[in-house]
Amino acid sequence: MTSDKLPDVPPIGHNLPGEKPLGKKPDQTHIVLSSHPRKGNVSAPEIHWGAATAKERGPVIGSQGNPQQRNVIGVHSGAYGVYRALAIAAGKLSPVHRPDLTNTFPSVDIPPQPQWQGSERIVSIDPWGHLVAAEFRDEIAAGFDIRPTIAITKARIQMPEMQAALASGRIKADGHILLENGDANVVKAAIEPVWYLPGIAKRLGISETQLRRALFEQTGAMFSDLITRHDRKVFLPPIGGITLYIFGDVANLATGKNEIACRVHDECNGSDVFGSDICTCRPYLVHGIEECILSAQRGGSGLIVYNRKEGRALGEVVKFLVYNARKRNPAGDTAAAYFEKTECVAGVQDVRFQDLMPDVFNWLGIKRIDRWISMSNMKFDAMAQHGIEIVKRIPIPDDMIPKDASVEMDAKKAAGYFTDGTSSAAVTSDDLADTKGRGLDKY
Ligand SMILES: [Zn+2]
Question: Rounded CA gap, 401 and 97, in Å?
Answer without folding.
Answer: 48
